[in-house]
Amino acid sequence: MPDLGNIPPTIWWEDGTVRMIDQSRLPLVGDLLVCNTYDGVCSAIAGMAVRGAPALGVAAALAVALWSETEGAEIGDLDAYLTALDRIADEIAGTRPTAVNLKWGAERMKRFARDNADVGPDALRPLVLEEALAIRAEDEARNRELGAHGAALIEPGSRILTHCNAGSLATAYFGTALGVIFTAHAEGKVAQVWVDETRPVLQGARLTAWELRMAAVPFKLICDNMAASIMRRGLVDAVIVGADRIAANGDVANKIGTYGLAVLCKEHGIPFYVAAPSSTVDLTLASGDEIVIEERDPREVTGLTVSGVIEPHSGVETKALDALTEAGPYALGMTKGHQMELTRKGGAYQFDAWVRIAPPSVEVYNPAFDVTPAEYVAAIITERGVARAPYTESLAEACCGTGAIHELE
Ligand code: MRU
């Protein structure tokens, strides 16, 4: 059994609230974010406090349940409740465009509410919450199954490269691409993981490195532009990534930079695997050309966002920090558009900074995802087994079929 060490759960329901580890500040600050309203969850999604396709599906379901338990609880009329739930679910689904799981989670909640509406609004609300909790539990279970299927593809002694974070933090728990790696590592097959830092938001350096360290999996962190060279030197045996949306033909949208890795794999004869639950497969899209690619804030590219904890060296520093943060967060005066905010949290002090690295006013293009054509993908690993080309058939079976799509040896 893979041991994930102290990796915390990503997102959960507690005391009538949705709680999550704020991933926008990990790993140097591990804040707990408590959302009391559904739009608090929407802001957390937009600000990437919760991110990663399967985790977004869970966040969407929990956000709908949170609305149902708060604002929705004021609506006595069934039709009005259902109409409002549809609207809220659509709003939640619209917070980020590429990861289909967000829409999938919201749509499943809409469908569930309509299918069970005959019990009336008062009895429906607890059922809606139960459904959201079921989606969360199912996600972890699927990832563990997917991990076992994927680990069967890994040769003993493998050096595996991964991009972005498709780990436990990108799911309710356990992870997809990292779920495969955790499982293969527990089976003694992983010699080392290469972790792409994953500019611009650095999910690899910040989150994947943090998870692998917690789970005691050996790894080395590299800059994205180092992958080609280490492949050429024969230091990579397989690449495994997650996915944000997979079209019916097997084209895969994932974090920007994934396509380049897939092309490199083809050139160097390295298998390129995608690990994703069936909820990431979008059979309504014939090909990846139809996938909407999110474009994000140019400041992700022109600068670096860093948070950390300040440990004062002396009483003088403590006094100064106390004075600055007495009335709340304090924005330091900075040149060149750099930003630095100081916050007092209990007895500790935190900084949140954005540091400019490009000259002011440069034009930026910042697509968050790219699409890898199916021809580059050696296999798509789902909880139902390992899908191979032709994906139009194997993915349809993975999502709509009844049996395992691939019998494990
Ligand atoms: O922008 P993010 O951090 O949400 O992007 C995440 C990814 O691209 C992941 O690789 C993908 O969602 C799969 S997570 C299991």
Explained architecture:
- With 409 residues, the protein is α/β, with parallel strands linked by helices.
- It folds into 3 domains: 134 residues, Four Helix Bundle (Hemerythrin (Met), subunit A), CATH 1.20.120; 179 residues, Translation initiation factor eif-2b, domain 2 (Rossmann fold, 3-Layer(aba) Sandwich); 58 residues, no CATH class.
- Helices cover 37% and strands 20% of the residues.
- The protein contains 12 helices and 18 strands.
- The strands form 4 sheets. Strands 6-5-4-7-10-17-18 form a 7-stranded mixed β-sheet, with helices on both faces. The chain has a 4-stranded mixed β-sheet with strand order 11-8-9-16, with helices on one face. Strands 12-15-14-13 form a 4-stranded antiparallel β-sheet.
- A hairpin with a 2-residue loop joins strand 14 and strand 15.
- Helix 3 packs antiparallel against helix 4.
- It is globular, with a radius of gyration of 22 Å.
- The C terminus is likely disordered.
- Bound molecules: 5-S-methyl-1-O-phosphono-5-thio-D-ribulose.
- The site of 5-S-methyl-1-O-phosphono-5-thio-D-ribulose has 18 residues, from helix 2 and strand 9.
